[in-house]
Amino acid sequence: MVGMRILEGLVTTVDAQGRLNVAPMGPEVEDADLGRFVLKPFLGSTTLANLRTTGVGVFHVTDDALMLARAALGLETEPATRPAEVICGRILLGACRYREFRVVSDDRGEPRPRLEVEAVAGGTLRDFFGWNRAQHAVVEAAILATRVGIVPWPRLLSELEALRPLVEKTGGRDERVAYSLLVEHVRAAYGATQDRGGTT
User: Fold this and answer.
1) 34-45: per-residue pLDDT in tens?
2) Considering the entire predicted model, what is its pTM?
3) I need a labelling partner for 151 at 20 to 30 A (CA). Which of 48, 81, 125, 189 fits?
4) For residue 37, with 0-12 CB atoms within 10 Å meaning exposed, 13-18 middle and 19 or more buried, which class applies?
5) Rounded distance, CA 9 to CA 27, Å?
6) Rounded to whole angstroms, how far apart are CA atoms 193 and 200?
7) Pairwise pLDDT comparison (129 vs 101), residue with the higher score
8) For residue 78, what are the CA distances in angstroms to 154, 174, 185?
């Protein structure tokens, strides 16, 4: 769609029992207001299952690269949150701004369905500090970490290592911790593959 671009952020959803899930996601957005946007969660993901069960969630814009990295690895299981205002959901207190949303259409496509959503409430929790090269590198590293088993190992490891100088030159403690977590995850997955005699 003309004018659409990807905005990286975090989506919170809850299941029928109210259990929280936090996942990094880059919806297709048309403007900064985020009145309507498109989510494309993978088939089999907890986010997709929760959205199809409850029909609602919260999208967060954040400058916290460490929180994003932890979410990509499934480690952000007990973040500081508060109840959403309109929907049955949770708002991440560490985010900058958020949009509570409801799903208005689901094309049921494969391997990534397109869910069009519309905001029903939103707000700002704090000013957006901004991004530096290290934070951008962590986002790219987090995306690579979620592509284990999809991207060939030589390419994945090479691209991950190429991001290291950006983190070392421009990152603070949080960015360095985030990058280390992601590298350790990928190396552990690679080591497990080698132990099984994998070659891809």
Assistant:
1) 999 999 999 999
2) 0.91
3) 48
4) buried
5) 8
6) 9
7) 101
8) 34, 18, 20
CB atoms within 10 A of CB 141: 29
Mean per-residue pLDDT, 10-39: 96
CA distance 115 to 110: 12
